[in-house]
Write the structure tokens for this entry.
Amino acid sequence: MSAAQVRAAAGRVVTRVAAEGRSLNEILPPALARLSDQRDRSLLQSMCYGALRFLPRLDLLLQLMLDRPLRSRDRQLHGLLVVGLYQMAYSATPAHAAIQETVQAARLLRRKDATGFINAVLRRFQREGDALLQETDRQESGRYAHPQWLIDRIRADWPEAWESILDANNSQAPMWLRVNRRASSRESYLEMLAGAGRDGYPSALAPEGVRLGEAIPVQALPGFGEGLVSVQDEGAQLAAHFLRPREGERILDACAAPGGKTCHILENCPGVDLQALDISAPRLEQVRENLTRLNLQAALACGDVLEPASWWDGRPFDRILLDVPCSATGVIRRHPDIKVLRTEGDVAGFAARQGEILDRVWGLLAPGGFLLYVTCSILKQENDEPVQAFMERHPEAKPGLKFDRLGSADSILQSRWGIQTLPQRGGMDGFYFSGIGKPGG
Ligand SMILES: C[S@@+](CC[C@H](N)C(=O)[O-])C[C@H]1O[C@@H](n2cnc3c(N)ncnc32)[C@H](O)[C@@H]1O
């Protein structure tokens, strides 16, 4: 496929995310599947991720260069322009090639009428890029490439660390693996990786975690098909350890899909009776596929955690993992479209729902049971605040998360009600964990 065709595809993907509010997870895979060459796929992926990662900055740049905003019928041109600007500002592609191929991509998208316009905008950036970027830096959303509301929220919640969080959000996340204890040990898997010419480094925090020196397609991972490893962030791998499942216990994974944590619990403690629930049937199918690849067993149910009557048999659970839907502001490195898709109002909506879900699952927990509340958010409104409100509504509940083993790690912060990991360059994603114990039993 020609370089211009890949750019046209990238422009289309960015337009569907930025203008139509679709998620990258939904739009990118089919676009990648249409490309047969691995190099084209890598190029498409890096252009889409890059353009969306820096979109707030690239949009400001465009504003500076355009006399008036683009009309809604020119949405595709916006997608193409930001992909072109991303390449010129952030990639090693020579400017003349980026310009030529973006212009050619406009022809492929049947916008021959706009080729002069695209050429003029990108050439102006080629001539005046340094001054324009300096001008963009005057606004925080341009300098940090985040929407202003999110900068304000992160700064308010993390007055010491906000700049390094924003910086980490703009970097590419490393690829973390979780070695399947039932099939291998971390040491033997590291040897296997070395034998395949790949660099891997053990995690200091997650006992099964390995960071790859360089990201590779999952199919190229030694032993992936045989279930020796899975891809899972280092921070996400802490959940199964914090849950502390024991043989014979009845466990509910209440928001389970795609099943990363479900499978980790079963790998570490195959003797549990695990119920995996998710509201989305297609996502629950991913749980099934992961269980099959790893040769693990769980009972699967498609249902709403808020309506247990439709899926619960009435037997209380000894432990509940509650990995609630959230703003996902801790995983922006991996999902840069969150910067575009989320609004400040969404966060309040998530927080209200999280409180409701906490209340509902509390009734499903056996006396003496343990609930682990998890988000991939770094906003206190979805973390300590709903837990604090829950504790006020349920004075019988006890904080129950012990983390002595991780106490000295500087990448993990202890908060009033839980533990927060923050996204870091080259490190883990941002997760929040709070353990709540039920008296009795
Ligand atoms: C953060 S993801 C879970 C990730 C998963 N625990 C893992 O480690 O792979 C949240 C999940 O909650 C599910 N969900 C959202 N609302 C739900 C509800 N009311 N009842 C059950 N599941 C729900 C979503 O479909 C989504 O799969």
Notes: Residues 368 and 438 are 5 Å apart (CA to CA). The two ends are 64 Å apart (CA to CA). Residues 255-261, 277-280, 283, 304-306, 323, 325 surround S-adenosylmethionine (CB under 6 Å).
